[in-house]
Amino acid sequence: MxxxxxxxRTRTGxxxxxxxxxxxxxxxxxxxxxSAGSTASDTLTMQLDGPVTSYDPALGASFQDxxxxxxxxxxxxxxxxxxxxxxxxxxxxxxxxxxxxxxxxDGVTCSDGEELxxxxxxxxxxxxFAPETAAPFLSNVIGAGNTATATADGQTVTIQxxxxxxxxxxGLTVGYTGIVCSAGTDDPSALTTGSNGTGGFVxxxxxxxxxxxxxxxxxxxxGPEFAGVPTEGARPATLVMEVVEDENTxxxxxxxxxxxxxxxxTDAWERAAGQADWTKTVSNQSDTFLMFNHTEGHPTxxxxxxxxxxxxxxxxxxxxxxxYGAGELITNLGDPTYECYDESLADLYPAYDPDAASKVLExxxxxxxxxxxxxxxxxxxxxxxxxxxxxxxxxxxxxNNQQWVSGLFTPLNDWDVTILVFANTSSNLLSGANxxxxxxPPNGQNLSAVSNPEADAALAVARATTGGESCxxxxxxxQLLLENMDVLPLATAPATVVFAPGVTAMVSKGFVRAGxxxxxx
Length: 521
What we know:
Blueprint: E1 2-3, E2 16-17, E3 43-48, H1 63-72, E4 77-79, E5 85-87, E6 90-95, E7 99-104, H2 118-129, H3 138-142, E8 148-153, E9 156-161, H4 168-171, H5 182-186, E10 201-207, E11 211-216, E12 238-243, H6 247-255, E13 261-264, H7 269-273, E14 279-292, H8 303-312, H9 315-323, H10 354-361, E15 365-371, H11 378-389, E16 393-399, H12 401-408, E17 417-423, H13 429-433, H14 453-464, H15 467-483, E18 487-499, E19 503-504, E20 507-508, E21 511-512, E22 518-519
Parallel strand pairs: 3-12, 15-16, 15-17
Antiparallel strand pairs: 1-6, 2-17, 4-5, 6-7, 7-9, 8-9, 10-11, 11-12, 13-18, 14-17, 14-18, 19-22, 20-21
């Protein structure tokens, strides 16, 4: 049982696709030279990595989606910068592998004035759980193929799972589980461009694909109980999230004073942070994996081809390219801070051997694509180059994040190799596993159509148990994936978040939480 009153520190959870990676948030507003005290009514502009899919939290699927969700919607619990689960809309909880009991905070209101009750919370969760909603990240919260029901009794909410899933609590920290109030659950179509939640900001207007404007809620006196949340200064009255995909452009905007917060995965941050009194925070944001399309008819359906592709890549070189060497090499479906990380899996990792790779790949046609979110897609280009050097005939596409995510979640099957960039915002190996098991999109998250029944059986044990038994099963699951070369873990991808003088905010997993932004008076 996981209790709010225990000393439980989670390293488990759900996340988002990059499929989300360095969702750099950039903030523009009054420049440092503006008069003191004016910031309480100023407009600030936060940069997004790409266009927003929807304001409906249940339908989000990318970095930029979760950023806007966290601004408008609160979750039951949240994940602090150190991996601790902290109170959000729930003040207390008791969670087991198959159920959770949550006490809802008193005094919370929705953006339309409705009181937040247990019934409102249960209705929102049941909509998220419903198969017809088709929430892309449902399996990260309740487990693949599982079902769940929420019921209310006054200010308490009970979530009952049909089958055990040990990642429930951490799954509920993700922005896609943001609680939607009654007007939104009654008319979900209104959530496409509007909002109805308990968050610190309310949807105002948008220029689709370019900028998104939000208005501050002056009565917002709650929010996740993060450690070290800024308390000095004012929150912006108007928040504009503007799409700025190029990191050099972000740095240019910061050096001219037109952007106060930006996150980077390249070394472009150095120009911004080098200015007097600017500050930075480095926070691990994404885990990256090489995915192979296992769909019948693709060359990568052959495990020998998958292993040869892995042998063709110098992973250290790839890390240097995709994060300027800031990342940490990994051999699990997450980084070493996650619970159940198993160092022994490194023994199964294929050695760099381009000569052996070329014996299999010579003359083979392969389609490589990826998101430009990390280092402008330079890591994807390295994969293309390495496979060409091994003799493969490679077609290549660098896609913006929205295009790439859309292609993964629709049955296009027009790729063989891609780098999955996954912002595992609640640090759970189980969440990474969801991409390599179960149904393929649109009915599931098995993006590369992996079929490994023996591994799936081990994963089922890991999901249904806790502690050492769960960790042992998780290690077995990953071992079976690596032996079949179903996926190749690569490296972490940190974000460097740069703040202008007088601007502060809480950063968790590389993301600035909009509700915590403060500008000094």
